[in-house]
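Technical annex B. To support the medicinal chemistry partners, we prepared a structural model of the target in complex with zinc ion, based solely on the information shown next.
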Amino acid sequence: MESALSGSSSVSYSLFSSSSQQPHRSFFKTSHIFEFKLRTRKMEHTHLKLATPVNCSHPGLTQEVEKNKMNVVIETEMRQDLFEEIKHRFLSFKRNTYMKNFEHFQRLSDAQSPKFLVISCADSRVCPSNVLGFQPGEAFLVRNIANLVVPFEKGPSETQAALQFSVNTLEVENIFIIGHSCCGGIRALMSMQDEKPSCFITNWVINGKTAKIRTKAAASNLNFDQQCRHCEKESLDNSLLNLLTYPWIEEKVKKGSLAIHGGYYDFVDGTFEKWTLDYEASCVKEDTRRLAVKNREFWS
Ligand SMILES: [Zn+2]
């Protein structure tokens, strides 16, 4: 234990000493919070790696320390660059969008009246504002892994809170659930072996179990990737039907003051498919559960 501790202090000293061998002067910038965090993390990492007794004067270890120093410099500068980039994007947004539409943003400070509730996957590649151009004030947006809507009786979730607020308070006229190609959440669902959730992710995606069962029944002859693609759409349809289990949603859909739409964004092909739930021809009851759609469009 003693040697492990002394080993780590030796490395820590070496990491932060002002050796002439420092590869880059920016290593000594000390004011940046991220740099500090990175240094701390790196030091902890090094400590873990040296948890067994080692000879600290070993040349291999010196090389390892130098390599770590380089990694710290590179990671720190990359993170600083990221925030520089984000700062420029914000300033560009302020100059080109916010200032040019100042009155619109002032009106938004009083209230919002979006026409859409959009439910999409949290995946970084499929941001609806980016892909479909939703502007500030146009869409109330909730994102979760695999764009799932659980049935009413499943109890509270952040998606259900967004449903209640947007439908009953904001009175949106459209709920738009958007699925996508290469969905990691659906892949996780399809990869589960025994249907027993073992972590937060599987505990969430198991909510799409019905879609998985239907996929296995309808597409067992397809390879795994094709089955995942099938399940992405099956799960989407399942979520569309689940919306009708919410009494206050069904009531509005029945009256015609609220419409339910599905969308599938394929970012591999660069296409978008959109459809609308046909309430009269759909049924959410367990034994006769079926989704009917209308106004299907394919954008390519
Ligand atoms: Zn996804």
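Notes passed to the chemistry partners:
The mean pLDDT is 83.
The pocket of zinc ion is lined by residues 121, 123, 146, 180, 183-185 (CB under 6 Å).
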